């Protein structure tokens, strides 16, 4: 038995050594409708890579115990500032990877042209501002994404990642954080509830669902205050 191997533990992300592993984790754990190419390979450039490039101080990984990241939490404490830097600093990175800007005047429907829709998201960072509901960023200005490989799920590591991230945001003076999740993922909502999140207390879909925090795409907006 190799007694030199540690138990999995949370540590700060080191972009130089963790980016490839974070890409892999995101690629392997995307939502079911994204689990084909090229959608699966575009997804990390939306929901993982920009954070370790632009705000690495708020990014943490679950280390397997042997140096390899097997889970991560990435995000920012100030979404508005992040969006500004995304447009000025990250869009050139996307272009260097061959992601040319789509014609934004032509709508790309998620259920008809998924790769096109994802490219629209890549080039529309202002969507993170949710300007139609300004109270979201006023009260919960930070946001996050969290993923773990299946073998490391349901073992308490997600809670540890969340504690580390929220603690860092609190230290930076952040008042709250939010996330948006697939509305049919009941297990995920239960997890977020256990780590202090609740639904955003506004009607987002014009009353179609009769639920707070559910938008017109059926996604769920969850929030956590950090006072």
Characterization of this structure:
This protein has helices at residues 15-29, 39-42, 44-47, 49-54, 79-96, 114-122, 135-139, 157-171, 186-194; strands at residues 9-12, 60-63, 69-76, 142-148, 176-181, 198-199, 220-225. The chain is α+β, with helices and mostly antiparallel strands and 227 residues long. It has a 7-stranded mixed sheet, sandwiched between helices. It is globular, with a radius of gyration of 17 Å.
User: How many individual β-strands?
Assistant: 7
> What average pLDDT do the residues reach?
94
**Helix share bin:** 25-40%
Question: What portion of the residues fall into strands of 2 or more residues?
Answer: 15-25%
Please mark out the parts with pLDDT under 50 across 5 or more consecutive residues, or reply none: none
C-alpha end-to-end distance: 46 Å
Number of helices: 9
Please tell me how large the radius of gyration is: 17 Å
Shape: globular
Biggest sheet, spatial arrangement of strands? 1-2-3-4-5-7-6
Structural class by helix and strand composition? alpha+beta
Main beta sheet strand tally, sense and closure = 7 strands, mixed
Summarize the helix and strand pattern as letters: EHHHHEEHHHEHEHEE
SSE blueprint and pairings:
Blueprint: E1 9-12, H1 15-29, H2 39-42, H3 44-47, H4 49-54, E2 60-63, E3 69-76, H5 79-96, H6 114-122, H7 135-139, E4 142-148, H8 157-171, E5 176-181, H9 186-194, E6 198-199, E7 220-225
Parallel strand pairs: 4-5
Antiparallel strand pairs: 1-2, 2-3, 3-4, 5-7, 6-7
Describe the structure in brief.
This protein is of the alpha+beta class. The protein is 37% helix and 16% strand.
